[in-house]
Specification:
Blueprint: H1 2-10, H2 16-27, H3 38-50, E1 60-67, H4 83-93, H5 97-105, E2 107-115, E3 126-127, H6 145-164, E4 169-175, H7 180-191, H8 195-198, H9 207-224, H10 231-238, H11 241-255, E5 260-262, H12 265-277, E6 285-287, H13 294-303, H14 319-337, H15 341-344
Parallel strand pairs: 1-2, 1-4, 2-3, 4-5, 5-6
Helix pairs in contact: 1-11, 2-3, 3-14, 5-14, 6-10, 6-11, 7-9, 7-12, 10-12, 11-12, 12-13
Family: Belongs to the CobT family.
Keywords: Cobalamin biosynthesis, Glycosyltransferase, Transferase
Pfam family, one: DBI_PRT
Length: 351
């Protein structure tokens, strides 16, 4: 708990002075006031995070947390659990979608085994296994409270290490067969919304598997009775190890005032946990996209975050978050490189 407490003590508020200076500069650039919409909002938020009007991103990093889920035994996914370690190897070999998009964006990938059920032997893998997959949430808690805290702290330390090596823009990613099920259970615990409104088809499951998924989540909520006032308890009872790790990455980045781009449903479940542990962490989150999963939109609404991209994506891995890196950099470049009316010799007076 010491690492988590240290991170929480270091999380602050946005720098209002820097944000005001950013707004003033944006209003004096050669364009109608507010005409770049969300890019301007993002530039102001980046100023609030860093305390600087001008921001450069020299090292972009995607942190992928990988873990397995006992609830996969309930038949909630179209793919077997063996796919989790296989995809981890694919990430490390450079063949997955996230690798393509990260190369396109010039971002490095850190892949963390925080709870894969089998052991993956690869020199590029960061092995910080808390346990070999969660237990089946339809029958009991996913993990102990101590394991949940340990998994959060794995994320915190991973973020800190990455930042110490120069990372100044972080994106969250995930891998774990069946992980939309605990993510949806977490949302149900915090939102109280009917499962039929927030549970989607994940990897594209058919009607039969969707019913199994709904039943598994319903059982998990009945058996574990997660208390929304106890976010670590919710995580331990119905969550996942990679979700915990993502929550930790967010808290770790927030404690160092580094912006963190949130990916899809699983990453946003981690963001929800982080926000409940410390609401100030939301200040350092940037929502990348809204996925096809119905619960993702609800999660973003609970966080008060507006996504920038609508691409009908539902892959995970950090793919949407990496795509949004380009927009974050664009916002930073607009405020820095665009000329003011005075610099360009353009009349600012409205006709």
């Amino acid at each position: 708990m010491e690492i988590l407490e240290r991170a929480l003590k270091s999380i602050g508020e946005l720098d209002n002075t820097a944000m005001q200076r950013a707004r003033e500069r944006l209003d004096n650039l050669t364009k109608p006031k507010g005409s770049l919409g969300a890019l301007e909002d993002l530039a102001v938020k980046l100023a609030g995070i860093s305390g600087k009007v001008f921001n450069d991103f020299r090292k972009k990093t995607v942190i992928i947390m990988a873990g397995d889920h006992g609830v996969a035994d309930e038949g909630v996914s179209a793919y077997p659990k063996e796919v989790t370690p296989q995809m981890v190897v694919n990430f490390l070999s450079g063949g997955a979608a996230i690798n393509v998009l990260a190369r396109h964006e010039g971002a490095e990938i850190i892949c963390v085994d925080i709870g894969v059920a089998s052991d993956v032997d690869h020199p590029g893998l960061l092995v910080r296994k808390v346990k070999k997959g969660t237990d089946n949430i339809a029958k009991g808690p996913a993990m102990s409270r101590e394991e949940a805290i340990k998994a959060i702290e794995v994320g915190v330390v991973t973020a800190w290490e990455s930042i110490d090596k120069g990372s100044d823009l972080i994106a969250t990613g995930d891998m774990g067969i069946g992980n939309t099920t605990p993510s949806s259970a977490i949302l149900a615990a915090f939102s109280g919304k009917p499962l039929e409104e927030i549970v989607g088809r994940g990897t594209g499951i058919d009607d039969l598997r969707l019913q199994k998924k709904l039943n598994a989540i319903r059982k998990a909520l009945e058996v574990n009775k997660p208390d929304p006032e106890d976010p670590i308890g919710v995580l331990a009872k119905v969550g996942g190890l990679e979700i915990a790790g993502i929550a930790g990455v967010i808290l770790g980045a927030a404690s160092r005032r580094v912006p963190v781009i949130i990916d899809g449903l699983i990453s946003t479940a981690g963001a929800l946990i982080a926000s409940k542990i410390d609401p100030r962490s939301i200040n350092f989150m940037i929502a990348s996209h809204v996925s096809e999963e119905p619960g993702h939109k609800v999660m973003l609404e609970l966080l008060g975050l507006k996504p920038m991209i609508f691409m009908r994506m539902r892959l995970g891995e950090g793919t949407g978050a990496v795509l949004a890196m380009n927009l974050v950099e664009a916002a930073a470049k607009i405020i820095k490189e665009m000329a003011t009316f005075e610099e360009a010799g353009v009349s600012k007076e409205e006709i």
